[in-house]
Design goal:
Blueprint lengths: L3 H8 L2 E2 L5 E2 L12 E2 L2 E2 L1
Antiparallel strand pairs: 1-2, 3-4
Length: 41
Amino acid sequence: MLTAHHWIDALGLEAHVEGGYFRRTFQADHRPPTRTLDGDR
């Protein structure tokens, strides 16, 4: 039986701070990072 944890591991998902899981598929490298109190993003 497949579980949520199976899919999280199989797809390489990361926990999201607001809940749930995600996988980054795009990152705009042509823009400088934005500074926040929690670090650059």
